[in-house]
Design goal:
Layout (H helix, E strand, L loop, with lengths): L1 E2 L4 H24 L2 H20 L3 E4 L3 E5 L4 E5 L3 E7 L8 E8 L2 E8 L3 E7 L5 E6 L3 E5 L5
Parallel strand pairs: 8-10
Antiparallel strand pairs: 1-2, 2-3, 3-4, 5-9, 6-7, 7-8, 9-10
Helix pairs in contact: 1-2
Length: 147
């Protein structure tokens, strides 16, 4: 089992963002600004979603590839895999995030790239990337080990 590694930049930026949001939320809450409270409730729900869906561990065996999240897991059956191609971060540099996290506690969610198409990404540092193609989906996963 391999742990998804967050880069130092991601750790620093995510910590700063959390601190600023927490400070602003406390300030708005103490002022009793209703619109601000509603806005921060929405931001809070999004942050909880991000925390519950961030990739934690990668388990690879002969039957499946499993990405474990704090709640649940994503399974890719080996029998459905058509190809696994190592790629570099330049290949995804022009990607558009459709839904998910684009750096806050990692890169994960649904993305689109003109060359690759639509894909699900699970990465902590955008290094050692692998493109996995199945009949119906595409995944990009970071792993120091070969998949």
């Amino acid at each position: 089992m391999e742990r998804f590694r967050l880069s130092n930049g991601v750790k620093f930026t995510s910590g700063i963002v959390c601190g600023i949001l927490l400070y602003a939320m406390i300030d708005i809450w103490s002022a009793g600004i209703v619109a601000g409270i509603i806005l921060y409730a929405i931001i809070g729900f999004v942050m909880i979603w991000v925390l519950f869906n961030m990739p934690l561990y990668l388990k690879v065996d002969s039957k499946q590839i499993i990405i474990r999240h704090p709640i649940g897991k994503t399974k890719i059956l080996r029998s459905e895999v058509k190809e696994i191609i190592p790629i570099d971060r330049q290949a995804i540099s022009s990607s558009i995030r459709l839904f998910g996290s684009g750096g806050f506690l990692g890169w994960y969610g649904i993305f689109y790239n003109r060359e690759i198409g639509r894909y699900s990404m699970f990465s902590g540092d955008r290094e050692n990337l692998h493109l996995i193609r199945t009949a119906n989906k595409q995944y990009i996963i970071s792993s120091k080990n070969s998949l």
